[in-house]
């Protein structure tokens, strides 16, 4: 018997005899299909174009630098109400950090943590210093390229996954807003583990 996945074929025996991938190298979770996936037709010029975030609906979108990961988080928070936030980004900007700090002070973000690539220390020393001063103990550095934002409270568990960083970028970007709590839990467990292993 053969299993076919696109153009890849492998017998059951070949799959059973395959070398196991070390658990530390791969995180995966089979979740199944969301109730509904919405593909936004146009390249977004504003997060408002995403419309209302709904439970059980994933939104797929493109933008050409019209908004960054943090602007998207802020848009979602306006709909979810105050929530815990985790941001994983290859880079970060001063203005986004200042905006997030104001939201924490206003109670719109109940807690926040950052996972940032190691290179931010040397490539962007000023934003890094701002992060260290505004969010002591709330950031960790590691070898990272994942761009993820988690937004969670008692009613909402949202994972935003895409190519956008926490910086402005005029390039074409792709993102997905997942509203399935299982996706959120999967991402949060991994990012919590990475946070424990990161450095300051």
Say how many strands there are.
10
CATH topology: Endonuclease, Chain A
Mean of residue pLDDT?
Answer: 83
CATH class: Alpha Beta
**Sheet with the most strands, sense and barrel status:** 8 strands, mixed
Amino- and carboxy-terminal Cα gap: 51 Å
Order of helices and strands: EEHEEHEHEHHEEEEH
Key features of this structure:
200 residues; Endonuclease, Chain A; two-stranded antiparallel ribbon; 6 helices; alpha/beta
Topology:
Layout: E1 2-5, E2 8-11, H1 12-16, E3 36-44, E4 57-64, H2 69-80, E5 83-89, H3 94-105, E6 109-117, H4 120-123, H5 125-134, E7 139-142, E8 147-152, E9 157-162, E10 172-178, H6 181-197
Parallel strand pairs: 3-4, 5-6, 6-7
Antiparallel strand pairs: 1-2, 4-10, 5-8, 8-9, 9-10
Architecture overview:
The chain is an alpha/beta fold. The chain contains six helices and ten strands. The protein has helices at 12-16, 69-80, 94-105, 120-123, 125-134, 181-197, and strands at residues 2-5, 8-11, 36-44, 57-64, 83-89, 109-117, 139-142, 147-152, 157-162, 172-178. The protein has an eight-stranded mixed beta sheet, with helices on both faces. Strands 1-2 form a two-stranded antiparallel ribbon. Helix 3 (94-105) packs parallel to helix 5 (125-134). Mean pLDDT is 83; it is low at 1-10 and 23-30.
Summarize the structure.
This protein has 6 helices and 10 strands.
């Amino acid at each position: 018997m053969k299993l076919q996945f696109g153009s890849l074929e492998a017998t059951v025996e070949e799959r059973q005899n395959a070398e196991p991938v070390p658990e530390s190298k791969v995180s995966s979770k089979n979740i199944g299909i969301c109730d509904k996936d919405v593909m936004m037709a146009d390249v977004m010029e504003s997060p408002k174009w995403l419309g209302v975030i709904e439970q059980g609906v994933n939104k797929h979108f493109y933008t050409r630098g019209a908004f960054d990961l943090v602007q998207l988080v802020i848009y979602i928070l306006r709909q979810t109400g105050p929530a815990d936030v985790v941001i994983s980004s290859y880079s970060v900007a001063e203005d986004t950090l200042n905006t997030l700090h104001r939201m924490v002070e206003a109670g719109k973000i109940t807690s926040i943590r950052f996972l940032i690539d190691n290179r931010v220390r040397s490539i962007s020393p000023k934003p890094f210093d701002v992060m260290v001063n505004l969010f002591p103990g709330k950031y960790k550095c590691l070898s990272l390229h994942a761009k993820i934002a988690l937004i969670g409270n008692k009613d909402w568990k949202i994972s935003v996954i895409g190519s956008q960083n926490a910086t402005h970028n005029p390039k074409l970007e792709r993102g997905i807003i997942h509203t399935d709590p299982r996706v959120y839990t999967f991402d949060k467990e991994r990012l919590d583990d990475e946070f424990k292993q990161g450095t300051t």
